[in-house]
Amino acid sequence: MLDHKMVRVCDKLIDVFMVDKPTPTDWRRLLAFSREWNNIRPHFFRRCQERADAEGNPDMKPKLLRLGRKLKEVDEDVQRHNELLEAIKSSPLEIGELVSRRRKDFTKEFFVHLHAVAESYYDNPIEQNAMAKLGNACLAAVQDCDNASESMEALHAAELKFQDIINSPTLDAACKKIDSLAEKNQLDSTLVLMITKAWSAAKDSNMMKEEVKDILYHLYVTARGNLQRLVPKEIRIIKYLLTIEDTEQQLASLRDAFTPGDELEGKDVDCLYTTPEKLRGWITTVVDAYNLSREGTLIKEAKDLMNPKIIQRMEELKKVVEKNFM
């Protein structure tokens, strides 16, 4: 039997969970905030069962049983989150290793719980700040882990594609496979880098036949050409304009870019045309993507522009376009 004080505490909590805060989201937050729940837990679930057994109202009995069952599920989740949090707090310098071992435990729900725990220290700013820093460190470690995993997956996928290309019966068939990958938007920079490295190693080797070097060179040219065509022409124009230091020369190049004519895409030089509106739109998109990069938003074709100094120059370029051409 529970003592009278614990009965009152449990009955009050049952009312809170069923009436005032009736959703599992509320329950998670309340458990995260509670400093006494560990002591109350075993008595609470027993009290839910006792009240259900003694309940004469046929509508209330299943509600009490459901509360006990569902809250137990939430409580088990919260206990797992707290156990992980304690592991992190005990070894703050080994967060990266912990994340790599237990990546599946670092769920969205865990970070919501960690945030709630940090909020619960509203009366202790030092502890609250420490929890917030711990959360940021965990998030950074998770992002690093996911990026490394994606890189490994991309490398494995690229290796399979590369082997398939190399095993083609003829050079023409191999080049067609590269063209086909480009058409399906499956020709990524990892594969192109792999082909480039193979060609680079071959051309400097005295052990490789000239025929093999020639094949790898053609694969390299085909891959680079396709990858270049996948990049929006406005991005290519922007990249070219950013190489020009002289203001007058940059202005002249902008006039050329906004003067319609025959477009030419070559290995060493491009003659591409667009409108001021489109160019400004792409500059805005890249700058916005850079500003949102902390949330994981990046433009694949413009990753090499994601640099504070380059972004500043792009904003200056945008002003030049607006002032002189719009």
UniProtKB/TrEMBL annotation:
InterPro entries: At4g37920-like. GO terms for cellular component: chloroplast envelope; chloroplast thylakoid membrane. This is Uncharacterized protein. It comes from Stephania japonica.
